[in-house]
Amino acid sequence: MANLSQKFTIFATIILINSLETIDSKIVRKMSRAGRGAVFFAEDFMTFGSSKAVAKALERLVKKNTISRVGRGIYSRLAIDPVLGPVQPSTEDIARAIKRRDKARIMATGVQALNAMGLSTQVPLNVVYLTDGSARTIKMGKRKIVFKKASPKNLAAIGKDSGLAIQAMKELGKEKITEEEIDIILNNLPVKSLIGLSMTSAWRRSGSESS
């Protein structure tokens, strides 16, 4: 009986502590558990209070430099580089966070796809993703992420790596891509498979047939 009474007392104490904890401290605790550099959205904290109360708490934390606002409704405890200091989340980090939140598929295009396939070291300020989620534009200072609505078939079963390969080849252009660039793309695929080879051959043939 005494043991049950002790458990009840501990449980009641936990409830009391939680009720006394401010929305600000709950937000900081949740972000701290995820580690520096993790990306959060305002709606991640809506269980802590009303939307107005959460918005005010986030505003206070940003003013104190406890957390950073990296975009509209997007927050992070910035990672700290020993030389550079605070480091903003990458566009890829934010895109992945939006993908998880919206339970959507995304596919990098353009220079981002070239970068993923080892064909460019350029880090673009503006990136475009195809998505089967909502079309939107996210602005983060000078950077911008554009999500373009794509038909499900364009994001379907070919898989992420094959999709990136196709987007990289599209960026290079059917008439300009070289055999060396194709070899680099294939070498960066997890498996240099017959599927990948036939995909590339078919893509090249469609380019020569349309020219």
Describe this structure in words.
48% of the residues lie in helices and 18% in strands. Strand 4 and strand 5 form a beta hairpin. It contains eight helices and nine strands. The C terminus is likely disordered. Strands 6-7-9-8 form a four-stranded mixed sheet. The protein folds into two domains: 62 residues, Orthogonal Bundle (Arc Repressor Mutant, subunit A); 102 residues, no CATH class. Helix 2 packs across helix 3. The protein has 211 residues and is an alpha+beta fold. It is elongated, with a radius of gyration of 23 Å.
- Poorly predicted residue ranges: 207-211
Average pLDDT, rounded to a whole number, is: 82
Along the chain, the helix and strand elements come as: HHEHEEEEHEHEEEHHH
Distance between the termini: 86 Å
- What spatial form do the alpha-carbon principal axes imply? elongated
User: In oligomeric terms, what are we looking at?
Assistant: single chain
- Count the DSSP helices: 8
The assigned structural class equals alpha+beta
Helix content: 40-55%
Radius of gyration, in Å, reads 23 Å
Sequence-ordered SSE layout with sheet pairings:
Blueprint: H1 2-20, H2 23-34, E1 39-41, H3 51-63, E2 68-71, E3 74-76, E4 79-81, E5 85-87, H4 91-102, E6 106-108, H5 110-116, E7 126-131, E8 136-140, E9 143-149, H6 160-172, H7 179-187, H8 194-210
Parallel strand pairs: 7-9
Antiparallel strand pairs: 1-3, 2-3, 4-5, 6-7, 8-9
Helix pairs in contact: 2-3, 5-6
Question: Which features does this protein show?
Answer:
alpha+beta, 3-stranded antiparallel β-sheet, 211 residues, 2 domains
